[in-house]
Inverse folding.
């Protein structure tokens, strides 16, 4: 299936002032331009239209989609601005990869194996004009492409994530992963299979779960 490409759009990220958007609590400040917020609103509206039939995210999260999905994805924003060739695994509804592509204008590759979710992503890319290439298929099918950044949210437990995707990472590349409360157990399990460097990234305020940066992944040899 051919890639779906969008036209890069200037996001105004570096010169923007915080823009208040609806969320829970009622107003949340995000360090992106008003144009970016408008494009993210298009994504949220599309998500509300598609989710009842495609099941992109948990129905219980839809009443607070900004906080639970968009703003959660934007937690990665300060850490991805220097990326040159990023890829997002198991992109689903576009979190975090599509959100980051919209917010930064960095050309992103999204990987999604589910055909219906891929159809949603195509439409979301078209409407938001995000700078995205969509790969419809399994991560293993990408071959060796040397991305400098791999992002993911809810894609797989860490041992399986590293096993299926480490071939994609450039020698000096890194993972930035949104992970939940089981992260320490996942790190311990992954270290039985791989050697790597891991760090919990600092954030300005407490958040559910954490951002984990991983680099230097090498498989243990028997």
């Amino acid at each position: 299936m051919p890639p779906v490409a969008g036209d890069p759009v200037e996001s105004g990220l570096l010169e923007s002032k915080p823009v208040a958007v609806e969320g829970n609590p009622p107003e949340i400040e995000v360090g992106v331009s008003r144009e970016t917020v408008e494009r993210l609103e298009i994504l949220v509206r599309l998500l509300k239209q598609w989710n009842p039939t495609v099941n992109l995210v948990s129905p219980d999260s839809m009443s607070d989609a900004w906080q639970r999905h968009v703003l959660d994805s934007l937690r990665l924003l300060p850490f991805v601005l220097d990326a040159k060739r990023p890829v997002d695994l198991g992109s689903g509804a576009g979190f975090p990869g599509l959100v980051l592509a919209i917010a930064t204008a960095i050309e992103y590759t999204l990987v999604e194996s589910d055909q219906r979710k891929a159809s949603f992503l195509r439409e979301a890319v078209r409407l938001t004009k995000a700078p995205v290439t969509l790969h419809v298929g399994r991560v293993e099918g990408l071959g060796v492409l040397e991305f400098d950044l791999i992002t993911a949210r809810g894609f797989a437990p860490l041992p399986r994530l590293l096993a299926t995707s480490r071939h994609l990472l450039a020698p000096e590349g890194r993972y930035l992963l949104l992970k939940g409360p089981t992260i320490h157990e996942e790190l311990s399990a992954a270290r039985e299979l791989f050697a790597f460097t891991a760090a919990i990234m600092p954030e300005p305020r407490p958040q559910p779960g954490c951002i984990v940066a991983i680099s230097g992944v090498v498989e243990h040899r028997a």
About this structure: The radius of gyration is 17 Å. The chain has a mean pLDDT of 86. The chain has seven helices and nine strands.
